[in-house]
């Protein structure tokens, strides 16, 4: 049934990041979507929840409360599983599976969670073999929550083993060759320069600099507008093929190249000759700042109630996209530009700078001012993007094979929000839009898919 209140357990203050996500302007709920091969056995699901790693973590068994001064705390409580598991028996609509589930998610994106129970829910769509975990962002970020979810799963072909997440490789090996003093000093000077330039850009974005208006622009209040969601699906092997076209390119470089090309394709369709060539549209990317922890490590940290890595530990990067007409653009030029830009961003330590500045503002000026700054930077940019690496092998949940993993989050002032999760050789990107601004997310999703296929065709043609 969970745990009961004990005299030895006292209220615990929220972390600075947790307090930020508890503010009305920044209240965010993460939706993790799990598709399965077979229908769910509800009794088995509830039984597994009661003994899961999730309910061993105090955040998932506590209420978010405020004291007389308005400061947020976690208060241990008893968990009633029946209040957290919602069963939807009927088919959602006559539409196909993806459209029906995405429509349900779009409705959830503007709904909050009850503060009268711990801030998570599990919606089970019986007719669609689909489960949706709704988890408040103050409980943790995408890396923490993916690790928590997978700690409740097992490998499909090894039912006694917990799924693993591959560590992303870095380019440290290429840097290690340049260890002479001139190169070290040069790299230090370049890093300091990029730190200064991008730190200034970040501050200006918070205060006054804003993207020019395009058919994709959102703004203040757009987080309250009705939403639509579509899914763009990619083959990881296709992305790996494309990244061979540029030395040391990564999957993230390919992803951003696909987004850049797809947005240009979409603008060609929505506003032919109506968008200035080379106009900048800025994306806001969320970057994990941990040292690539393994799944089992985070699972152990949850059990030991350690805050060393669990929670919200991410920085932000400003990633510019430049519109280029598709009929005269080299598809692989998007990848070359994306890699060059992201390499500079990595060298600038911009993500670490944004994290430290946010922590400093929260500690000195309080969550209301920090929330205002975050809301401003959202209003001054065009879209949000996140990418969470899932397991490479097939997994099962409650002995039910998992067919896909997807994620999205609550609405933001952006009219376009992109969330990608990889799983077993595939990567699904949820394309969430404000439907009164972007009425056709299915076409936008196809623009992203076609962009990757065109890049792959150009690479394979050269082999």
Describe this structure in words.
This protein is an alpha+beta fold and 463 residues long. It has helices spanning 16-21, 42-50, 81-84, 97-108, 142-151, 172-176, 181-207, 236-243, 251-270, 295-303, 331-348, 350-365, 367-379, 441-462, and strands spanning 12-13, 29-36, 62-66, 72-76, 85-88, 120-125, 130-136, 154-155, 227-235, 280-288, 314-322, 383-388, 395-397, 400-409, 416-423, 426-434. It is globular.
The gist of it:
This protein is α+β, with helices and mostly antiparallel strands. It has helices spanning 16-21, 42-50, 81-84, 97-108, 142-151, 172-176, 181-207, 236-243, 251-270, 295-303, 331-348, 350-365, 367-379, 441-462, and strands spanning 12-13, 29-36, 62-66, 72-76, 85-88, 120-125, 130-136, 154-155, 227-235, 280-288, 314-322, 383-388, 395-397, 400-409, 416-423, 426-434.
Helix proportion: 25-40%
Number of strands: 16
Main beta sheet strand tally, sense and closure = 7 strands, mixed
Estimated structural class? alpha+beta
- Beta-strand content: 15-25%
Helices, by number, come to: 14
Biggest sheet strand line-up:
5-6-7-2-14-13-8
Choose one word for the global shape.
Answer: globular
Q: How many angstroms does the end-to-end distance come to? A: 59 Å
Task: Please compute the radius of gyration using only Cα atoms.
Answer: 22 Å
């Amino acid at each position: 049934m969970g745990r009961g209140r004990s005299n030895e357990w006292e209220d615990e203050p929220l972390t600075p990041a947790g307090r930020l996500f508890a503010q009305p302007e920044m209240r965010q709920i993460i939706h993790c979507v799990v598709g399965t091969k077979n229908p769910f056995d509800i009794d088995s699901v509830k039984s597994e929840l009661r003994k899961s790693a999730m309910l061993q973590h105090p955040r998932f068994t506590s209420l978010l409360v405020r004291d007389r001064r308005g400061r947020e705390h976690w208060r241990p409580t008893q968990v009633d599983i029946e209040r957290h598991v919602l069963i939807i028996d009927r088919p959602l609509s006559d539409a196909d599976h993806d459209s029906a589930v995405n429509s349900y998610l779009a409705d959830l994106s503007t709904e909050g969670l009850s503060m009268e129970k711990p801030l998570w829910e599990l919606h089970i769509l019986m007719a669609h073999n689909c489960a949706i975990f709704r988890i408040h962002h103050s409980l943790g970020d995408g890396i923490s929550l993916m690790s928590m979810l997978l700690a409740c799963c097992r490998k499909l072909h090894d039912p006694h083993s917990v799924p693993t997440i591959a560590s992303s490789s870095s380019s440290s090996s290429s840097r290690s060759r340049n260890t002479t003093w001139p190169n070290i000093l040069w790299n230090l000077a370049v890093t300091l320069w990029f730190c200064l330039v991008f730190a200034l850009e970040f501050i200006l974005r918070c205060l006054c600099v804003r993207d020019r208006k395009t058919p994709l622009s959102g703004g203040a209040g757009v987080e309250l507008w009705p939403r639509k969601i579509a899914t763009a699906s990619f083959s990881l092997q296709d992305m790996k093929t494309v990244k061979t076209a540029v030395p040391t390119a990564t999957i993230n470089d390919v992803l951003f190249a696909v987004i850049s090309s797809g947005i240009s394709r979409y603008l060609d369709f929505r506003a032919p000759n109506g968008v200035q060539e080379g106009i900048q549209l800025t994306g806001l990317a969320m970057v994990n700042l941990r040292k690539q922890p393994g799944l089992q490590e985070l699972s152990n940290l949850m059990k030991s109630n350690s805050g060393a890595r669990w929670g919200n530990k991410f920085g932000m990067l400003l990633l510019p996209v430049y519109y280029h007409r598709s009929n005269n653009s080299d598809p692989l030029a998007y990848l070359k530009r994306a890699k060059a830009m992201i390499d500079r961003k990595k060298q600038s330590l911009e993500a670490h700078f944004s994290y430290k500045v946010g922590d400093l503002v929260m500690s000195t000026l309080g969550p209301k001012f920090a929330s205002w700054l975050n809301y401003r930077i959202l209003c001054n940019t065009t879209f949000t993007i996140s990418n969470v690496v899932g397991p490479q092998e097939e997994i099962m949940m409650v002995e039910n094979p998992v067919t896909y993993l997807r994620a999205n989050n609550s609405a933001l002032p952006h009219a376009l929000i992109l969330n990608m999760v990889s799983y077993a050789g595939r990567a699904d990107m949820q394309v969430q839009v404000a439907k009164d601004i972007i009425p056709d997310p299915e076409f936008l999703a196809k623009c992203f898919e076609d962009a990757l296929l065109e890049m792959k065709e150009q690479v394979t043609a050269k082999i």
